[in-house]
Each structure stands twice: as C-alpha cells, then as structure tokens.
Amino acid sequence: MRPRRDRHPISGSLALATAAVLLAPAAAAQAADPPPALAVDVGGAQLDLVLVKAGRFRQGSPPGEAGRGDDEAIREVTLSRDFYLGRFPVTVGQFKRFVEQTGYRTEAEVGASGGFGFDGKGLSQRKEFTWRTPGFPQTDQHPVALLTFKDAGEFTRWLTQRTGRAFDLPTEAQWEYAHRAGTQTRFYAGNDDGAAASIGWFKGNAGSGTKPVGQKQPNAFGLHDMSGNVYEWCRDWYGPYAPGPAVDPEQTAAPGGDKPRRVLRGGSWLKDARHLRAAARYRNDPGSRNADNGFRVVAALEASAPAAAAPSPTGPAAPLSAESTRAPRSSSWSTAATVAFVGGGLVLASAVVGLVGVLVHRASRRKPMAGAPPGVTFRPQGDGFWLNAPPHLHGSVLHYRCFVNGVMRRASVPIEPSPRGQFVYTGGVPSAVEVEQLGAAAWAAAPSPAPRAAWGGDRSRDRISSAPDVAVAAPFRGYPSAY
Greatest CA span in the chain, whole angstroms? Predict the structure, then answer.
C-alpha cells in the first residue's frame, strides 16, 4: 500500500470542520477570523503553517492506556489564544536557507566531537555527524535532524527578525492539543498500533533514517508527521504536570533535584509505535544532538514591525547546566507587540546588566573545594569532559566550574551511574575543572567520615541548605529513558 501524498485533501477540510465542533471555544471571541493557513518565505523555500483555534482539551492519558508512561497524568487544559503551527517539521531545505543567509553553525558542527548519527546499527557520536550528514541519505524534503534546542531556537529567532511575526517553539500543551485535533484516542487515527503505521514513520516501518515529510495521513487540522519521523523540541522544561486545570501552561523552570532537560514530542524513526501516541512524553538534555531530534515552529497570528535585535533568552529560576541555559527564546506571545518600545528595552537591558554584575560578584566569592572528592576524576575531551565517580555519589548534584575558551563557566550536573563514565557537555574544550560543591545527598551516603576532611572546603556543606543552588530534592522518577 502506497503512502498518501495529498497535502490538501478535501476530506481533511471536512475533518477539520468536524474537529472544530468538538473543541470548546475560547472565552473571548476574536473580531475577525485569521486566515486558515499561512505561507512564509524562508529565502526561496516556503514554510507552510496551519491555524489552530483556541479551545480546551484533556492532556495526558488514562491509566489503562497501552504503553502509557507514569508522567502522563490527566489534566484539563485551556489554550486561550489561536496560533499558527507548522504543517510539517522544519525541513533540511528550509534550515539550509537559514544557514546560507546567516552563516550559522550548529552545535554539532562547532563542537569537537560532532553529533550522534546513525552508524548502521544505532546512534554513535562522530565528528562527521551533523544535520548535513546524519548517517543516512536525505533530501531537502526530509525533516532536518541532529539539532539541539539552541539550534532550533536560533532558527525561530531568525524567522522572527525576517518576518516581523513572533515565531517560537510550541509549548508542550500547544503541541499535544494540535496533535490530538479533537481526538482522545492513543493515536489521532485510532487506538490500535496499526493506526501508527498510517500516520507516522517509526522503528517498525522507517528502516534506517527519516523519510520526506507529508507522506503519511494528516490529522484533522491538516498537520503531518506529528507522530514519528523526528522528535520535536518543545519550549517547556521537563517535569511533572502541575495538578488541577491549567490555562496556557508552560514549564518555565526545570524542577529541582533532576538534571534539567527540555521536552520532545512525537516519537521518531528510531522508536517503537507506543512513542507515537498523542500523550507520550520524552525529554533530553538541551545540548543533545541526535539524528532523530528535529522541531516544528509556532507563530503568532499577526505580524508587527521587525525587532531591531533578537529578544533576550528566558533564563530558568533554578541553577542549570551551562548547555541548558543558552538556548534563546525567540518570542513571548504576550509581549511580542512591545518590541518597538526601544526606551523600555534599554531600561530592561540596564537592569539585566546590573543583575548580572551582582550575580558575578556573588559567584566570585564562592571558592572551589581544596580537591576533588576521593574517586572523582575529570578527563577533558572534545567539547566537554568525562566524569567518573564512585557508586556512593550517584544521584548527587556536583557543582563545578571550568574555563572554556578563557571564559569561566559555572554549572551543576547530577552524577549518574555509567560503566564508562559520564560525559558532561561544556560547549568547548574545558580546562581547570574544579569542584565547588557536592550535593547533600553525597555527604549522607559517604562510606566513612574520614574522607570528608580530606575534601577540604567549608564543613557547613554537610548541612542541607535551603538555598536554590544547593538544595537536593527528590528527583522526579516518571520520565522515560533518554540517550
């Protein structure tokens, strides 16, 4: 059976009208309906977007759903504003126009160790693996892959500057709402695993790589490849859903006690059918560059005057690893129209500069420990370092600092068990890696009190502090595995 290639089927329009009836209208009616579709020029290539109307839906999955994850708690979600969403994931051809016009180099290209591409058996890291060469053949119509969260954010930033319309990555709630398109089944085409084959590319039918976009059955909104082909980055930090109903939810800070990770949705050509479910959640380090990670864009309804400078990144409230804090947010839906107020921007910039100065002053007062804890070793390699630690330190948060290209970086990382060691990404060749602090969990688990004195530093670190940068909370255990 040949896959469907129709991109604007009449039946899809009828299904769209039917699905719209199933969705609750937004509280505030809009004066005029925006166009149902939008075509954006990206330097010679066209990016198509579909209007998604505001409404309510049930996010998550029921306890008895086959393949359900522990992190899919049900909650009622209201999306109060219409938005445009890419009809397809961003393609190789579209991303190529961005690179040609800006000279941008992805993190896999800049890093010394490359990305994780397909080696014929699975994903492995090599210098030659980038979005251009992911380890399998691709054309301009394939979804672009092997991109980090930052890479995706830079593309949306460029679109915002180019068009004057606010572009971004979708929130997790926007993504699932658009994916379901009025349905509550496991897949938008039904409940059986067989439905997955009609809507997406996954481990059971994809072979050894991605496929051109638009070959599978779209959902009722006319969106293709929402299931399978490539995972798609979302704006949210990964964590458990907040209990109770939510309006326009977005996880803007990483939960404490767990390694900060961003949300990905949709499943991929490397995953089983259950990962293509509407409620299935996934997460990964923002700096991960895998050959099944891509993205789709969301856009505001109206364009405004192009901003003179890209908006500043939105930083998390909790201390995060260096790679997780540098991804820019291209827009904010509630404030996109205010970019023209240059005076206000200057005031904000001055406040930010002042705040950074205070933080740097405070950070400079923290001194590194006299030496690494016994058994902890660092081995720089490529764009990061290998961390080895004894078993009693696994699960503890290690706060460290190092120099990358002459600039000091401070970050923290949960120590994870690994037979070959744990690779910590720093974005460049690190030097002078120093331990500043070890989470309280490690002190409690130390085999004997004798080594503690040998670590040096302030003995007050034995106590569990309530300060954000040292508190060690119980990590959220509901997440799926990541690479």
Answer: 75
Distances (CA, A) of 346 to 9, 340, 341, 465: 49, 11, 9, 36
Residue with tokens 């890093």: 111
264: β partners: 233, 282
CA 279, CA 185: separation in Å to the nearest integer?
9
Lowest mean pLDDT among 96-105, 115-124, 133-142, 317-326: 317-326
Q: Check the CA dihedral 428-429-435-438 and report its sign.
A: positive
| Res. 135: pLDDT tops 60 | yes
Residues 6+ apart with CB under 8 A from 128: 114, 117
Is residue 71 within 8 Å of residue 281, measured between CB atoms?
yes
What average pLDDT does this structure show over 392-397?
80
pTM, whole model, 2 decimals?
A: 0.63
Model pLDDT, residue 236 = 97
- Rounded CA separation 133/117 (Å): 8
For CA atoms 12, 163, 264, 230, give the dihedral sign: positive
Residue 447 has pLDDT above 60, yes or no: no
Q: Which domains occur in the chain, in start order?
A: 10-340 (3.90.1580.10), 377-462 (no CATH)
Q: What's the confidence (pLDDT) of residue 450?
A: 34
Residue 435 has a pLDDT of: 87
Instruction: Quickly list DSSP for 95-128.
Output: HHHHHHHH----HHHHSTT-EEEE-SSSEEEETT
Name 115's bridge partners: 126
